[in-house]
Each structure stands twice: as C-alpha cells, then as structure tokens.
Write a structure and sequence with these properties.
By secondary structure, the protein is an alpha+beta fold. It contains 11 helices and 14 strands. Helix 6 packs across helix 11.
Amino acid sequence: MTALEHPARRADEPGRPPERIPFPVVDEVARHCLQEEEPETVHIEVHLPGVPEPARLKAAFGQALRRHPRILMREARGPWYRRRYEWELTDGPDVEVVTYPAAERDALKRARERSLTEAPPLTSSPPIRLEVVTPDADTTVRDTAEKSGAVLFLTINHTALDGPACLRVLATAAELYGGRDNSPAAAPVRAAAAAADQQKEEQPDAPSSPWAPPARVAHGTPAPSPGNGMLVAELPVPKRPKGSAFTVNDQLMVATALMITHWNREHGEKPRPLRITMPVDDRPRDETMPIGNGTRLVEVPFSADELNGKEWTPAEIRALLTRTSGRTRALKSLARPQLGHGAALLTAPVVPVGLRAAVTRGLRRAAAPWTSTTLLSNIGRVPYALDFGDAGRAHAVWFSAPARMPRGLTVTTASTAGRLHLALRWSRTLLSHGDGAHLRDLFEHYSHATEETASR
C-alpha cells in the first residue's frame, strides 16, 4: 500500500500523538527541490455567477476537508538525521483556510500573482488555501469570463497535493454548500470502431532516442525578476472529426508541439526532437478518490523531422495526430512508478534525508539537458458540476502547473460548459507576458488547425 492510499486514522485516546505517514516518492522529490524563487504551487480558478455566503462556505469546506481526511496534514518535525520526511495527520485545520479578500482594483490579477508567489506552508494543515475574490465593479475587464460574481482561487502546495485531488475536495464542498448532487460525470470513451481502425494504422517506432537531449523552449524576453508568469484564455474546444481514433487530448498535444516548433523556428533555434511530459491520472473521481499527488508522468516524443519543414495541410496534420494517438495510447497503458524506477531507488530510506536531498538536487541539475521540453496537463472535461446552489454553477475553471526551469513553460487545459480553458505558465527568466500572449495565439491557431483534418 502506498502512502497515497494509506488510510487516515484518528487517535481515539486523549493525548495520543497524531498519526504519521511517510512521504511518497513524488512528495519527497518535490520536497528536496523546493526553491523560494519559484514556488511549486498549483492554482485552480473557478468562476461563479454569484457570491457564496461566507459562513456557509467556510462550514461546507471545513466539512469537506474532514470527509477527505488525507488532506488534513502537515510536515512533521524531525531531527536532521531522520531517514524520511513524514506527514502528520491532524484532526482539523491549523489555519483559516477560506478567506474573502477585500474587493480591489485588479483583484483577479493580484489573486493570480499570489497563487504563483505565495505557497501555503507545509508546516500548517492543510497545505492549501481558498480565496473568494469579488472583482471590483469599477475594474475594466476585457474577458467576459472575468465578469463573474465571484472567483474561487484554490492555491495548493504541489509538494503535498495535486490539482485533481483538490478539485475533488472542492466538489464535495460544493455539494455540501448547495445541497445538490456533484457526482462526477462519466468519462468519454473512444468509440470501439475508431480504436479498431487505430490498431490497423502502421505505428512507427519511437521517433527519437531517449538519450538525445530534447529541444528547449527558446528564450523570449525574460523579466527582470524571478518567479512564474501566467496567462489564461478561453478558447473553443477543438472539434474532433467524426469517427477519428485520436482524442481531444491528442489534438491538444499536437497543438502544443506545433506551437513550440513554430516559436523556436521564429527565434532561430535549430530543429531538435521534442518530448512533452503528460500526466496520467487513473484514480476514480468519486469520493473514494485517493488524495495526494496521484498522477504518473509519461513523455510523448516527437522527432525533429516530423515537426519541421512541413506544410501543415489537413492530411499532414491528420497523419501527425494518428501517430500521436498511437503513442499516447501506448504510454497510458504502461504500468510504471509515478516518476520511474530511478526515483523510487533515489528515495529509499537508507541514508538521512538531508544527504538524499543533496544528491537529488545534484542529479536534477545534471539531468537538466534531458528534461522534457514542456508539460501538457489536460484535465479534460471537468467531471463535476461545481454547483454552489444560490451562488450558481461554475462556468469557467482554470488550472496551472509549476513552470520551473529547465522546462520553463507548462500548458494546462480543462473544459467547462463546452469551452476550453487554457493556462500558459512560464518562468520569468525565460519569457515575458508578451511572449505568453504570442504563444497563446500560436496555440489557438494550431488547435484550430487540428479540426480541419482531411477524412480518409
């Protein structure tokens, strides 16, 4: 049984010390590599037509935390020579989790900045916070999605938890607040006939050696200060031609690959293979969902030849989509540890954690040239209604994932109410806001191009 699946038991006797559980591999590696300049946060942004009543929302969210007790944890103290980090389970929150910041000009911008720069501390339970932001009515906003009654900003310390797990907790809170069913919708299933056709396609071998360093995202105009920048956009969900074996996720993968190829070509970079990290989450979405960092990471490869020197006709894009579909299907079916076998060996508790931390950081720096080009995290269709009763149902949900160097750029997508919600997040040592806007335009262009594939 992994630590992620460890049952959260409570002490029955007064004075009994809180239960402790060891850090899973993903948590420990993240803990070793923390940096103050670029906090490892996940941000979730939920737009509602109304404003939840403070006392009711705080009560509902507090009850939701207790329904998912694995989220009520903090890093336990220990001597320098300890051989593992441990989570200490608590009976309740150590801090006020839900807050209502005062309305101010540029409230959404400031809340987004906080979500990127101020990670909830690991030493307080739970390592998350929920801000209910009400944009100032005098503030001019161009995006109609930002003209909400309230925006829920959930900021997560990624060392402890991931976005899908915390979205599950938020869905429970919505159900408790609004009294309406927030059960997850069934995931879409690829048609059997399309899958059979896919198997008939001739699938090439891996397009490049895993030992070849992949392309890096070319430097744009770096900002003068460190940290992450972010841009969110609302786009149409790319339409999938009827009977296609590839999925919307494959379309987004291809759009990401072509976006970076185009960007690098504009900045004079030589063609090199790309590798795009893709989180895979096999957990159930109902209330039994294990809470923690539960995704495993796979890398989708693209050769330099298949991305460069092409005129992207519908037929060429369809061929690329078909190849990409075969790769993602094969990678999703692989049974492997979350970060691979090497990480499990690296975190074996045979020496003190301080020594393992130094080794992990050194290996991370040494392996930087082989780190994947970027990360595409496609949440897919948000499976919960997120219906907050009198405050209404969510009509837009954005996620963003950390974007530390050497990748320096992450792409996160989710769909709600038939719209695609895209978040581009970057290291400010690599790109500026203007660069992010250009990348957004490229992504939108290539996302639309995947709709125009020629039928066979």
